[in-house]
Amino acid sequence: MAHAFDLRHHGDRETAAGLTDLAVNVRIPRPPAWLLERIAAVLPELAAYPDAAPATAAVAAAHGREPEQVLLTSGAAEAFVLLARALHPRRAVVVHPQFTEPEAALLAAGHDVTRVLTPAGDGFRFDPASVPEDADLVIVGNPTNPTGVLHPARDLAALARPGRVLVVDEAFIDAIPGQPETLIRRADLPGLVVLRSLTKTWGLAGLRVGYAVGDAAVLAALREAQPLWSVSSPALAAAIACSEPAALEQAEGLAGEAERDRHYLEQRLRELPAVGLPAADHARAPFVLIHAPGADKLRLRLREESGYALRRGDTFPGLGPDWLRIAVRGREITDALIAAWPRD
After folding, report:
1. CB-based contact 283:147 (threshold 8 Å)
2. Measured by CB atoms within 10 angstroms of the end CB, which terminus of the chain is less buried, N or C?
3. What's the rounded Cα separation, in Å, for the pair 89 and 91?
4. What is the distance between the alpha carbons of residues 305 and 302, in angstroms, rounded to a whole number?
């Protein structure tokens, strides 16, 4: 490859004690009290091995699927490792810029990877025709991290076909009101696997819980590659709790708040000189990608002089040192960031 990207670099490596964290996309500082109570309630039962069946049934019911079409995972990131272990693609395609863990997992398992880049000049929109016809594994994010672009469901669905596994990473879609463009209920698409995470909305990064929904045959192969008891009892309790109607209603309210805060962040960023938001017209995620000349140096100044941690962009294929990703926070934090932004 012409440029070696640090595919294992993630936002948590930008953070440190005393910094205002705008690098990690977990929106709330701790899970809500009702969720902590549900998790804590299973702690006395930790002597027993975890039973994933109730949580699997709960997630399946929440998405109108059958239990065999759901696989609970130790964070959505585990699903990428399972895909790399269980599948034997002749041509694996990863659509970039996006979360780099899928490609890292494929490379670690010895697979070759073809990168398809969405162009910055077109707002990072995805053209299904850019995927080679012979691709038998395609991985794409929706909305995509770090661009935030929400791709039309019809464009992604057009990629599905017999003999191909289509993986759509929807880790951030529950931060969008109504979850538009989701494919999670499309049981008619062959080879489709949709990935979800409870990390972002519910502040559960430390618990490690996510799930895959989709083609039962593909999930059966992943299940065979998954270690026994991969998902802990507390994580399974969280999956059940977050699949209940009251939790889904609360998540929808949090999504509305996130969208309003994102609009405000975009508005304030547009006030800054030499800062561009190329993806903004198509973005819906709880983070904003910016382009600014010398962004790599700007990031260090904000960190060292003002105490803000932003996510560098040069570890994402398709981006470079002039890109930064900023997590959406409340208006008070946004205003303070804009006030601290170097103008010289």
Report:
1. yes
2. C
3. 5
4. 6
- Ordered by start, the domain boundaries in the chain are 11-29+252-340, 33-246
pLDDT single digits (tens) 177-201: 999 999 999 999 999 999 999 999 9
Full-model pTM: 0.96
Q: For position 344, what pLDDT does the model report?
A: 81
The label of the residue with tokens 């009892």 reads 233
Residue 283 carries which DSSP code?
Answer: B
Helices and strands, counts by H and E, the chain: 11, 11
Question: What is the number of other CB atoms lying within 10 angstroms of the CB of residue 273?
Answer: 7
Per-residue pLDDT reduced to its tens digit, 209-221: 999 999 999 999 9
pLDDT of residue 27: 84
pLDDT band at 2 (very low <50, low <70, confident <90, very high): very low
Longest dimension (CA), the chain: 60
Query: What CATH number belongs to 11-29+252-340?
Result: 3.90.1150.10
